[in-house]
Amino acid sequence: MLTLSSLSSYARHTFGFKRLFWRIFIAFWLASLLVMLATGFILINNFSSDEYSKRYFNDLINQAERIIWHYEQTSANTPFQPGRLKNRIEKKPNHKGHRLPILIMDGHGKQIYHYRMSQVQPDDSVQRILLGPSDREYQIFSKKPQPPRIYKQVLYRFQTLQFGFIFLASALVSALLSWSIVRPINYLGAFSRRYANQQEIATLPKKLLARGDELADLAADIDFMVNKTHAAASTQQQLLHDVSHELRAPLARLQASAALIEQKNPDNRHTKQINNDCMRIDQLIQQILNYSKLEHYNSSPQQCDLNALCQQVVDNMAVSFPGTGIHFASSDTVEITGYPEPLLQALDNIVGNACKYSPAGQVVDITITEHENTVKIAVRDHGPSVDESEMSKLLQPFYRGGNQMHTSGFGLGLSIALKAINKHKGELRMSKPADGGLSVSVILPYTLA
Amino acid sequence: MKNEKYKILLVDDDIILCALLSEYLQEDSFDVETLNNGETAINRLLEKDEFDTVILDIMMPGLSGLDVLRNVRAKRQVPILMLTGRGDDIDRIVGLEMGADDYLAKPCNPRELSARIRAIIRRTQQGSTNNIVQAKLHGITLDSGARSARVNDIPLPLTSAEFNALSLLMERAGQTISKQDMTQEVLNRPLEAYDRAMDVHISRIRQKLVAAGIDDVIKSVRGIGYQMLTAPQQVQD
């Protein structure tokens, strides 16, 4: 549903005037306002200059008729005195309103009244013939009507409530238009981002696909592409999974055969090598299976106590790395909604890495800090530091840091951790503490929503 | 008894692997019989209680190892060692909860398998040749000679791992025993990473005790291990 509240919330999330939303909105709004202004200008210009002239001449004739009336009154008995007439007209207490420049002459061209006409250029003057009450002709001169500046009129007219409505309505229409274009684009963006980050294919709404316009075509194409990509990736994952799985049976037989040789010839030095390599292949298979298992992990989320998970990891490290001290201040339960198994795996891999690279005599620190919406688990070691440029590479599968080829690793640990953390819509951050070593932080939201 | 070969049943769908492991174990002086599917394994095990240990692969087509475990455990207390995939923690825990004695990740080194079988047999035979001890606490009576437990004279059915764990806890009542020590003494093997075997065994003992009317006598000491309380009122936490 397209409602104003959703619109405003949408607008709130989309700051920055470079956004397509604002560009379309502003362009369309300005265009519609300009069209309205131009229309208004033309209408008012024609209408009001006619109107103004009409009123002007009305006023002029009224004024002249009054003066002529006075003139005929005064000049009937006594000889005409222009000063007296002027006095009488201008000093009249109830004389109100704006007076126009005027020059009145009688039929013989004798000037009978004059008001501010000296400033008027001959080009600017207009002439009218008027009959007085006694049927005598008078010539009246005045300034051409000059309608006030058009923008003043326009502004004057647009200060009304009507204009406010037009203004708002055009804004609303522009916003709706803009929104109807931008919303599907944003939706498609979110759709592909979601796939890129979480490998989840959302279903596109039927409304979007049924639009019938270019955006619907684009949506259909993106949908097709994502499904195709997903199918290819799934096939690859499945293949990796199947191959790894199938390798296990022959590996078990190989190991058993080597053990048989060893049993019969305890001095055979090659069987030890075979056993070591079998173990290594087994570990690699396990890592690959863990990695692909996360891909298809579809248990429902549940409450996980991060403190307990960390404690479990610490207990495990005491078995796996008995020589490495771990400092973990166990606290109360820190519960988030998530997937305990992948989380444990992620934490195990991160802490395991820290222990692996931690020099003798140094401790690995694990701290849990709760923030408003997230929980941060920081694992810090004092091992060799990692260049910033290398940090992101460490998250790639099968990448092993620089020349520190560790015999017991495949470069999958952090990739698995990252995958598990991404499943929680969390973040994995690496930083280089000032006093050396590496700090890996896992930031997890309290809820998956 | 020492001259007699221990009889092992190996259940795995991989026929070649069965042959190899069986050859290895026979060389290690076990008497090995192999079966390749769940149904025959259930029939064989229920037919006659003649094996000292059963090695059971969990991942089998048809009836899985867990199905076999469920069917057998209801009627037989024979020690069962599961072979699970390395990452399959759920299978392990479910298996232990169904009464398996221990697990081993597959693919496994046959040397380790052999050692594990010996560990299981050693603890099932424990006591039967040594001095016979009776322990009593909270109304629980353990008879290490008969390897049987009774609660207020009602028999308490326990697997051999559970019996060993309970007797260790009662022997050292009042002391906290670490998970490492318990795994070593009860299962005769070192603690592994993410080793839940002891926790599951303890949890099963607790459930059985609660069913028999005894609550809160085994206390978990976080990050360390377990402790049998000497008196019920000591329960804190």
Strand content of chain A: 5-15%
Helical fraction of chain B equals 25-40%
Number of helices of chain A: 12
| Number of distinct beta strands of chain B | 12
SSE succession of chain B: EHEHEHEHEHEEEEHEHHEE
Classified in CATH, the superfamily of the largest domain in chain B is Response regulator
Helicity of chain A, as a percent range: 55-70%
- Give the chain pair forming the largest contact, with residue counts: A-B, 30 and 28 residues
Overall shape of chain B: globular
Radius of gyration of chain A: 45 Å
Largest sheet of chain A: 5 strands, mixed
Description:
The longest helix of chain A is centred in the first third of the chain and has 58 residues, at 20-77. In chain A, the strands form three sheets. Chain A has a five-stranded mixed sheet. In chain A, a hairpin with a 3-residue loop joins strand 8 (363-370) and strand 9 (374-381). Chain A has helices spanning 4-13, 20-77, 82-90, 150-158, 161-198, 206-209, 214-264, 270-295, 306-320, 340-357, 388-391, 413-423, and strands spanning 102-106, 111-115, 125-131, 137-143, 302-305, 325-328, 335-338, 363-370, 374-381, 427-431, 438-445. Chain A is α+β, with helices and mostly antiparallel strands and 449 residues long. The two termini of chain A are 22 Å apart. Helix content of chain A is 56%, strand content 14%. Chain A folds into three domains: 13-189, no CATH class; 239-295, Signal transduction histidine kinase, dimerisation/phosphotransfer (DHp) domain (Helix Hairpins, Orthogonal Bundle), CATH 1.10.287; 302-445, 2-Layer Sandwich (Heat Shock Protein 90). Chain A has twelve helices and eleven strands. By secondary structure, chain B is α/β, with parallel strands linked by helices. Chain B has two domains: 6-125, Response regulator (Rossmann fold, 3-Layer(aba) Sandwich); 134-234, Winged helix-like DNA-binding domain superfamily/Winged helix DNA-binding domain (Arc Repressor Mutant, subunit A, Orthogonal Bundle). In chain B, 39% of the residues lie in helices and 23% in strands. Chain B has helices spanning 15-27, 38-47, 65-73, 89-97, 110-125, 160-171, 179-187, 197-211, and strands spanning 6-11, 30-35, 53-57, 80-85, 102-106, 134-137, 140-143, 148-151, 154-156, 176-178, 218-221, 225-228. In chain B, strands 2-1-3-4-5 form a five-stranded parallel sheet, sandwiched between helices. A four-stranded antiparallel sheet of chain B has the order 6-7-8-9, with helices on one face. In chain B, helix 2 runs parallel beside helix 3 (65-73), helix 4 (89-97) runs parallel beside helix 8 (197-211) and helix 6 (160-171) packs across helix 7 (179-187). The radius of gyration of chain B is 18 Å and the shape is globular. Chain B starts with 5 loop residues before the first strand and ends in a 9-residue tail after the last strand. The A-B interface holds A 248-249, 251-253, 255-257, 259-260, 262-264, 275, 278-279, 282, 286, 289-290, 293, 311-312, 314-316, 319-320, 330, 341 and B 14, 16-17, 20-21, 23-24, 27-28, 85-87, 89, 106-111, 179-180, 191-195, 222-223.
